[in-house]
């Protein structure tokens, strides 16, 4: 094979070493380049107006090949200064011709071109890396926005569930709290209406109980209804009832919520509310201590008096008698037995007691053993089978559902615990504040994404221009070296990645 047909392959990263090893450039070429750069800076201060020059000098590092183009342009602009001997009287032309000669001495231009090529081979990957980093920042910011949206939806859903349980819109908490508290008697009426279904279960329990005073509160409500605590304690109706007023103490910030964010219309809610699996358990404050030391005024009272903000019907109080056989129900004794916190807990305890008994009986009746180890010595009426006892247990469970549902629990706490009302209102208000902050952060992050996207796109043309300049410079170097070796094909490999950007 002819030597001229064998290409000269040179690594772009080792071009300078190759040039120095073959004595094409001297080892002190960098000092010569500094002098040339100084001349170029001075020459650029006096340039004619020409569109090709503007395009050539904008955004590019001036090298030897640019200087050759500048000289060709000056031959046109400075043509009137050319003498008969081919010399130019223009200082501009003389300056740039001097620069070209300095470049060509010891092939300094080739060393500088190799250095530029190596530098661009580093700059392009660096810009690509910077662009990818910005892209990752955009992705991270978008993920952050998604997290904020999920957090916002969770807060609004949690607030919606609480408001739904309370049956309020959440726009004016104090007014809505009081309005819902006044509907507590409807909840109690539902319980009282359902309670007679427990008579069979109570009679069944009586067959196994040696204590005739068992379930006193449940049996009292069955016989007299949801009476005052006074009547339950003293076994006689009060002559008059002084109901404590409903008070909900909230600050201005806690009273009114943002209508656009907090206005949730849940329609008309029945006293019994089933919210499925999305329960929000909120437990604030300590148990309320009930004082039973209110005095009884036995003065001459002829009429039944009602004192307070609400009527007896609104408070769910049943006055079973009148005349001189009762006193005045005040304070906690004026509340109904289902409304008073202490007696409400007692009622639940008695229902749980009845439920536990029925569950034990169901277990025994379903067992293969004829007698339980607990009740083996007691003769039991066998008229109740498994199905009958199971029906009793279902009735008890319904009472528990009515008494301990989330809506009733919230309203009961609101009425009897000012601390709970403040904490609940603060929680509902804070959720809106947090949502506002979350939305503000989201807007900031969206603006950040716009800025980052702009930065990312601005890098694209820079990389494209560098790649184009690098490829052009690489071609010029290959052609120059090829001339030195009688036209042999020269290939610079391992240069900048020219793959298009995504």
UniProtKB/TrEMBL annotation:
Biological-process GO terms, alphabetical: regulation of mitotic cell cycle
TM region(s), chain numbering: none
The protein in question is named: CDK5RAP3-like protein
Q: Name one Pfam family in it.
A: CDK5RAP3
Its GO CC terms are: endomembrane system
Q: Which family does it belong to?
A: Belongs to the CDK5RAP3 family.
